[in-house]
Amino acid sequence: MSGASLPPTLTAPLHIHWTDLDAAGPVDALAARVSADERARADRFATPVLRARHLAAHAWMRERLGLATGRAPLDLAFDTGPFGKPALRGVPAVAFNLSHSAHLAALATAPSGDIGVDIEQFQPMADMELLAHHHFTAAEQAEFAALPTRARTRAFLLGWTRKEACMKAAGCGLQVEPSAIETGLSALPRRVSFDTPDGPFTAEVRSLADRDDAIVSWAWR
Q: One GO CC annotation, please (predicted)?
C-alpha cells in the first residue's frame, strides 16, 4: 500500500492513497470486512477476479476511512447522492472518493469539501483519437493533435482522469459533458470552473503522473 499527499501549496490535509487490489488477500477474508450490500454487489460481477477486486477495493476503503474517522471499519455507513456519489453517513467532517482501474485503486480523503478522484491504467487504446474528438474541448483537441504519437496516451489519460475527477467532485454524474470541462492535458495544477445542474462548480485539479503504470487525478473544493 502506498500513498501521497498534496504538495505544500495547499495546506489542508488532502491525501491520495493507492493500492494493488490483487494483493489484498483471500476473498473470504475480504468478504468479512465489508457490508452485506457490498457483498451482494460483488456477487453480481461476471468473473471471480472482478468480484475479488470489488471486495478488495471496498474493504481497503473502509480500512482507510476507519483510520480517518477513528471508527471501526464495519461500523461505517454510507449515503448515496442523486447521481451515485457516496458520502459517509453521520461523519460530515470527512470527504472521500474511490476509483479503481483493473487491479489498482485510488482513494482521496479530506477533512471537508467536495472531492473526486480517478485512476486509469496505461493500456492500448484503439479508439483514443475518437474519444478525444468527442470528449475534449477544442483547445484540448488541438493540444492533443500537436503531440508526438508516443506522448498521446499519457496526455489523453491526464485529460480523461482530470475530467472524471471534476465530475465526481461535483457529484453530477453524466449530467455534464466532459467536453464542457477544460482541464488541459498536463499534470500541472489548475483551477477549473464549469456549470452543473446545481450551478457553477469550481475546483482545483491535480495529478500524479510519475507512475509508469497509471495516472491518478483529483479535484477538490
A: cytosol
- CA distance linking residue 221 with residue 199, whole number of Å: 14
User: Quick check: 125 and 118 in contact, CB under 8 A?
Assistant: no
Q: Is the pTM of this model over 0.85?
A: yes
Question: Quick one: 119-220 is in which CATH superfamily?
Answer: 4'-phosphopantetheinyl transferase domain (3.90.470.20)
Burial of 216 per CB tally in 10 Å (0-12, 13-18, 19+): buried
| Class of the CATH domain delimited by 2-113 | alpha beta
CB neighbours of residue 15 within 10 Å: 17
CA atoms within 13 A on the CB side of 147: 18
pLDDT digits (tens, 9 = 90+) for 151-201: 999 999 999 999 999 999 999 988 999 999 999 999 999 999 999 999 999
| Cell 494493488 found at | 20
Angle at 19 between CA 221 and CA 47, to 5 degrees: 110
Asked if residues 22 and 53 have their Cβ atoms less than 8 Å apart, the reply is: yes
Q: Is 178 exposed, middle or buried (0-12, 13-18, 19+ CB in 10 A)?
A: buried
